[in-house]
């Protein structure tokens, strides 16, 4: 939690001025009961109207100055809180972007979203209220008690008795609430995860008619969160009535003591009113303090969660080498890989060499380890055993930016961003000309339908929802080709393409000037049959390696895949 406060350093001036102006406002507020006492004891008692008018003008002046002080304090507090949250959110996002795939998988997308949004907002509210009330409320409470002693020390003993009781109630509830609010945020993570999964998979859910089941699961998580919030809310809600009961009991005692002392001639009516006003000020400030503590309790829980995310360190150490050799040769040397230490290997003893310009097909059933294998090339994950080399250099020794600049990657899920076709393609190479962009579109078999629209200025909705699945895939392939990479990874990126378009795409890549070393991950034999080398994976093991004809004769797994798609007929010609 302490690490988060570094983001307030550049707002040190605001953090000082905000509370100071609040204390100035509180000082003027503490003077008001004395002015009212003077009006009653002097002006009204003596029938002195000019004195009453003068004191009323003084009250108005105190109110105006207090208002200006409050507005100024609010400005500085808001500026510091918003600036703090913006800096923290930027730092958190930058840190998460620097984590490896392994850490992101462990942390989870839902919890990252919650921490960047909800948790940071709670912390922002906590900082804002703390700058405004953390000093003001105790100042008013103890200031009112001291002012009461200046009026009459015996009557002020009521304040001495009631303030510790109020503090016990407030801080007792606070200590009970803090761990419960942390649990609420954790349950909110689970609810966010369920919501995200349902929204992303809405078509699949409807296709399998699982709306009722998913709604039921969501309702369970929502009810659990609701019950937890209600339980904490009920206990926290006790703070206001408990403080009201204590304060009003103190007021009864104060009025009784005051009446006796007025009757004895040691107190005036105005001083009793002033004591009552000070007690009312204490009540108001303690209610504010209660709300502040609830907000700060939530903020503390959220701050600890953010700090936990910031403390997660990348498991990979960036290399420093930037080899001048750029051929696109990839070598897997007895590579094994497990996603988490101690778990079963996702890949076991994989070894092969992809020469420059070759096309490598990787095929296998779902969960066979195809994506895991190609993810080791750009070093999204590190292998557990063996080495992966690019251009003769171990990928762990590469500078990460240098390594990934040599690689064009088209992931399984075609992802486009809001903007235009041009802005999306420039992700591959921000300095590419329009001619180069159209060349990439042509290679990706996307030029025709883009020219039919508005060319490179065609609008792209978030996620590319205004394009079909096949069009999205071709645009993501074009984005990778704009970079003119030495190595191209197509991770099942033509699954939505028909056989003819898929064949034309592969032919265009092979015939490109300086064709890249291409890895084609697919479950379709038609997509890999013309590859220079095909690797057949089954349960993380390479059970076959060779060209199409060889594997048909020697690899039962490949034969089974081929027969299931073509019924044993040779009808997959390009």
Notes on the protein architecture:
- This protein has 574 residues and is of the alpha/beta class.
- It folds into 2 domains: 2-311, ABC transporter type 1, transmembrane domain (ABC transporter transmembrane region fold); 330-566, P-loop containing nucleotide triphosphate hydrolases (Rossmann fold, 3-Layer(aba) Sandwich), CATH 3.40.50.
- The chain is built from 20 helices and 12 strands.
- It has a 6-stranded mixed β-sheet with strand order 6-9-10-3-11-12.
- A hairpin with a 2-residue loop joins β11 (533-538) and β12 (541-546).
- α5 packs antiparallel against α6 (153-200), α5 packs antiparallel against α10 (269-311) and α6 (153-200) packs antiparallel against α8 (211-237).
- The longest helix is centred in the first third of the chain and has 49 residues, at 49-97.
- The two termini are 61 Å apart.
- The model is unreliable at 568-574 (pLDDT under 50).
Please supply descriptive tags for the structure shown above:
574 residues; alpha/beta; ABC transporter transmembrane region fold; Rossmann fold; 2 domains; 6-stranded mixed β-sheet; 4-stranded antiparallel β-sheet; elongated; disordered C terminus
Provide a concise account of the structure shown.
By secondary structure, the chain is α/β, with parallel strands linked by helices. The protein contains 20 helices and 12 strands.
């Amino acid at each position: 939690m302490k690490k988060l406060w570094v983001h307030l350093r550049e707002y040190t001036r605001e953090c000082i001025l905000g509370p100071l102006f609040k204390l100035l406002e509180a000082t003027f507020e503490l003077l008001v009961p004395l002015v009212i006492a003077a009006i009653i004891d002097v002006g009204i008692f003596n029938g002195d109207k000019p004195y009453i008018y003068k004191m009323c003008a003084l009250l108005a002046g105190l109110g105006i100055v207090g208002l200006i002080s409050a507005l100024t304090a609010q400005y500085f507090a808001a500026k510091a809180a918003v600036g703090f949250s913006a800096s923290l959110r930027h730092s958190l996002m930058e840190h998460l972007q620097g984590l490896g795939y392994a850490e992101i998988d462990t942390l989870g997308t839902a919890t990252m979203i919650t921490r960047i949004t909800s948790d940071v907002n709670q912390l922002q509210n906590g900082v804002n209220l703390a700058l405004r009330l953390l000093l003001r409320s105790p100042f008013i409470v103890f200031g009112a008690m001291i002012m009461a002693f200046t009026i009459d020390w015996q009557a002020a003993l009521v304040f001495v008795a009631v303030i510790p009781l109020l503090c016990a109630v407030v801080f007792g509830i606070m200590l009970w609430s803090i761990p419960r609010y942390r649990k609420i945020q954790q349950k909110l993570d689970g609810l966010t995860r369920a919501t995200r999964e349902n929204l992303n998979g809405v078509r699949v859910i409807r296709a399998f008619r699982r709306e009722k089941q998913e709604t039921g699961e969501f309702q369970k998580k929502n009810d659990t969160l609701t019950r937890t919030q209600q339980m904490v809310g009920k206990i926290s809600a006790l703070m206001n009535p408990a403080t009201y009961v204590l304060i009003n009991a103190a007021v009864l005692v104060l009025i009784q003591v005051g009446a006796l002392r007025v009757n004895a001639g040691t107190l005036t009516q105005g001083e009793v009113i002033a004591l009552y006003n000070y007690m009312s000020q204490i009540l108001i400030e303690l209610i504010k303090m209660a709300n502040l503590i609830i907000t700060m309790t939530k903020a503390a829980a959220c701050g600890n969660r953010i700090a936990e995310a910031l403390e997660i360190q990348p498991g990979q150490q960036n290399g420093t080498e930037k080899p001048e050799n750029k051929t696109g040769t990839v070598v897997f040397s007895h590579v094994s890989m497990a996603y988490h230490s101690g778990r079963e290997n996702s890949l076991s003893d994989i070894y092969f060499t992809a020469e420059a310009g070759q096309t490598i097909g990787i095929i296998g059933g779902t969960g066979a380890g195809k994506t895991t294998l190609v993810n080791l090339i750009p070093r999204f994950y590190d292998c557990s055993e063996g080495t992966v080399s690019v251009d003769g250099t171990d990928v762990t020794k590469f500078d990460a930016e240098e390594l990934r600049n040599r690689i064009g990657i088209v992931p399984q899920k075609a992802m486009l961003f809001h903007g235009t076709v041009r802005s999306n393609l420039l992700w591959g190479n921000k300095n590419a000309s329009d001619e180069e962009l159209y060349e990439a579109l042509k290679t990706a078999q996307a030029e025709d339908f883009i020219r039919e629209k508005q060319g490179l200025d065609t609008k792209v909705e978030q996620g590319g929802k205004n394009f079909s699945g096949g069009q999205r895939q071709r645009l993501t392939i074009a984005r990778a080709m704009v970079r003119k990479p030495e190595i191209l990874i197509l991770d099942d990126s033509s699954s939505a393409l028909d056989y003819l378009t898929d064949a034309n795409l592969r032919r265009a890549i092979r015939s490109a000037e300086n064709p890249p070393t291409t890895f084609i991950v697919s479950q379709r034999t038609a997509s890999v049959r013309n590859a220079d080398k095909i690797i057949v994976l089954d349960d993380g093991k390479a059970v076959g390696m060779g060209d199409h004809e060889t594997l048909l004769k020697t690899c039962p797994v490949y034969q089974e895949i081929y027969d299931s798609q073509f019924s044993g007929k040779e009808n997959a010609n390009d």
